[in-house]
């Protein structure tokens, strides 16, 4: 950066940037609060259950961390909490015996089935239904571009289409 002149955000860019920060923070807090209050489940725990459900109930821990764009240690700590609540269990990979696989339990599946409608309704009420279909699609395109760029900056991460 030292060899380039700094390009500060203009007023319009600054307003948009701050709106993005505020909106994402408030939205994620609201969605997390809804899950915590009703199901004693965090957004990260919910997303882990979703990812597992989309992978026949099991996924390698490293792949789960990469798909969530979280550190492996953060996912490991979260999985430990979820194991204590009997929502998941860990086992050695049947493929090679070296990796660890997170497996959703029947209790985890039941909780996901109960929590998913509340979460989806919150996403609709607080985001999707507030804007036009075109604007929502534009947000998706922008954030995919950002994710693709940042994954390129961290090649150990592999983004998957959500």
Structure description:
By secondary structure, the chain is mainly α. The protein has a domain of 85 residues: Arc Repressor Mutant, subunit A (Orthogonal Bundle). The chain contains six helices and three strands. Strands 1-3-2 form a three-stranded antiparallel sheet. The radius of gyration is 18 Å and the shape is globular.
Q: Tell me which oligomeric state these chains represent.
A: single chain
Low-confidence blocks of residues: 156-162
| Biggest sheet statistics | 3 strands, antiparallel
> What's the CATH first level of the domain at 31-115?
Mainly Alpha
In the CATH scheme, what's the topology name of the domain at 31-115?
Answer: Arc Repressor Mutant, subunit A
CA gyration radius, whole angstroms: 18 Å
Physical arrangement of strands within the biggest beta sheet = 1-3-2
- Could you give the count of β-strands? 3
Write the H/E string, N to C.
Answer: HHEHHEEHH
Shape: globular
Residue share in helices? 55-70%
Spatial gap, N to C terminus:
33 Å
Helix count equals 6
